[in-house]
Amino acid sequence: MTLRDDATADAPQTPSGNASEPAPFERGTAVAIRGIHSYGQHGTIVGFAVAGIVVADSDDLTVVCTPAGSAVRARGGSGNGPNGRLVLADDWNGTHDARPWDGDAVVRVHRRGEPWSVWRWHDGRDWSSVWYGNLEEPWRRSAVGFDTEDWTLDVVGEGDPIDGPWEVGYKDEDELAWLLEVGAMSSGEAERARLAGERLTAIAQGATWPFDADWTPWVPDEAWGAVPMPVDWRRLN
Question: What is the pTM of this model?
Fold first, then answer.
């Protein structure tokens, strides 16, 4: 069941103007990965947030694990688009829905400055055969974790990138086309996502980093449980 987080409507949503990033987080720190976007009359807000635990963080690389049951927040309102899950600016009701992260723990690997993160799921014994490339703004550290902006289009791999079989394709092309059609995304933004998708697809098909990396150091700690959302997850700074 989805819970409604009605306090969002009254929470501060204005950036503080602080351009400097905090220092890297230590392993085991609870954080939130937040999607930041400008939503018309609502201004710039946190549109989506998922809690997680820092696996590794440096000036070059960030790895975050979201264990099953961890807190998720998403804009409340009527969903639209091909899959009925896109809440446009005019349809956002000013609140966020609260739900837990379903399924196995997911580990997101992001090389700083790249317009994507690569995800894999771990069931406590082994990695799944699914690889997920989320196209997005390069991550920026915030007081509560990492900020980005989702670009809708995704790259998905299935199988073994080294020994095969290995298939790579796109996900949510229909949603990208719909956002462009209704004017919720500009042609420049759509082209940016497509170009990033082409680059990541080539990397995945060529089985280069992180598809050829040793993910053993990023296996979730068995002691990590569900992560609550940081108290100040709505505050932009």
Answer: 0.91
